[in-house]
Amino acid sequence: MKKRVLCIVLAALALLCAIFLLRSCTLNKNNLTLNDLAYDVNPRSGYTVHILEDGEYTPYLVLTNDYNGDGNVLLLRYYLLEEPHVYDYTDSYYNGSLVDSLLNEIFISRLDADFLSSIVDTEITIADKSSIGVGGNRVEQIIRKAFLLSVTEVAGIGGHPEPACVEGSQLKYFADDYTRLIAYDNTNAASWAFRSSYTASRNAVWRNGLDGVAGGGGGHWVQGVRPAFCLPRNLLVHQDAIDGETVFVVSGNNAQ
What we know:
Elements: H1 2-31, H2 34-37, E1 48-53, E2 56-64, E3 72-77, E4 85-86, H3 98-106, H4 113-116, E5 122-127, E6 139-144, E7 146-147, H5 151-155, H6 172-175, E8 183-184, E9 189-190, E10 192-197, E11 204-208, E12 214-218, E13 222-223, E14 228-232, E15 238-242, E16 245-249
Antiparallel strand pairs: 1-2, 2-3, 3-14, 4-13, 5-6, 7-14, 8-9, 10-11, 11-12, 15-16
């Protein structure tokens, strides 16, 4: 009798497992969204999607499914842009800086038009112009499609020296492993700029070094640019073969 009960229980468990695997396979093939790939939802999914830039697929990290609490997914380019760039020559005010214009005029023109229409306008926090050059901590909000991450979002707070302005909150992706601050220009580790002004100086910005440690540097220095932007969390993704590897791809305008 006990053996018969045990067999029934095992058979029921096997059936439940089969149903779960079937539903998982269906989800993975047909209904997978950006939300499902986000690092803070399921890091085991690989949290990486590929997006067309100038006709070539480029990998992006899916960092969170709720950036700034607005319910949108934050994507960060895995590699730095091919060409480094200056932040600005005059001061470190992000709004209207050279790098701000680069992202929202030149960079986004590389994206497919259908995909570009899916990028949402995002409110980001930056250092207020009155804070720059005097070590101030006042901030303001601006709306952008493409933007740089802040030192607070990447390196957190509590560093030495302490960032004067708090611009958002630290992303779990970086908090879990500080070595993820190291970025690459396809092959080599390279420094990359944040949108954060180093407000004690007129023209200095926070940037990430080759070793993944955040510090200050001149806004007129040539440094890596790593675009970020937000998409609706319900955009569908699909699998495709790129250079012999099966990866996730998102093309926009295909929300579930």
